[in-house]
Amino acid sequence: MNYRIRVRVMPKAGISDPEGMAILDAAHHLGHDKVMNVHAGKSFEIEGAFDSIDEARERTHELAERLLANPVIETFELVGVEEFS
């Protein structure tokens, strides 16, 4: 079966997020004073042919752990798994 898995990578709590801070500053300059915080991350879509949804999750988890996220400063989350043709 073909699966599409979405992975979200974000900075760990307490890690400096200069991109998020720059976006927050720009938002305030544009008059969006109610915005209190911005966290900038990365999003990935992985597509592959796996034998099961469990294998799709397991293989993508391994990929995210070893390649997509830096475990020292980032966390990752599988946010969606769907079958497609």
CATH topology call: Mth169, Chain: A
Spans where pLDDT lies below 50 across 5 or more residues: none
The count of strands amounts to 3
Helix segment tally: 2
Radius of gyration: 16 Å
What is the CATH superfamily?
Phosphoribosylformylglycinamidine synthase subunit PurS
Q: Strand pairing plus helix content: what structural class?
A: alpha+beta
The backbone outline, from C-alpha atoms, is elongated
Main sheet: which strands, in order across? 2-1-3
Identify the CATH architecture: 2-Layer Sandwich
Series of H and E elements:
EHEHE
What is the CATH class?
Alpha Beta
Q: How many domains make up the coordinates? A: 1
Binned, the helix content reads 25-40%
How large is the share of residues in beta strands?
A: 25-35%
The largest sheet, given as strand count, sense and whether it forms a barrel, is: 3 strands, antiparallel
Mean pLDDT: 97
State the end-to-end CA separation.
8 Å
Description of the structure:
The protein is an alpha+beta fold. The protein has one domain: Mth169, Chain: A (2-Layer Sandwich). It is built from 2 helices and 3 strands; from the N terminus they run βαβαβ. It starts with a strand and ends with a strand.
What's the short version?
This protein has two helices and three strands, in the order βαβαβ. The chain is of the alpha+beta class and about 80 residues long. It has one domain (about 1-85): Phosphoribosylformylglycinamidine synthase subunit PurS (Mth169, Chain: A, 2-Layer Sandwich).
